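Order emerges. As here.
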Amino acid sequence: MQPGLLWFDVDPSVDLAKKIATAALFYQERYGLLPDLCFVNPSVLPCKLHMTMGIEIRTNRQLRPEHFWLGQARGG
């Protein structure tokens, strides 16, 4: 399994881009670099959001809608 950060946020008043940005900043504090990949459940991904803060957004049905995973695409 590739290391990364599993983030949980159920606040309906915050959009997905803001949630990812908040988690990315936490990831940067913890690991010393910004993530470049984020997996989310397809049900929460608006079709117009493909990248935010230089982070590629991909879908994964195994993640619950209130969770998302951030990490490095190249294991970096």
In short: The mean pLDDT is 89. The CA atoms of residues 4 and 71 lie 4 Å apart. Strands lie at 4-8, 37-40, 51-52, 55-59, 67-71.
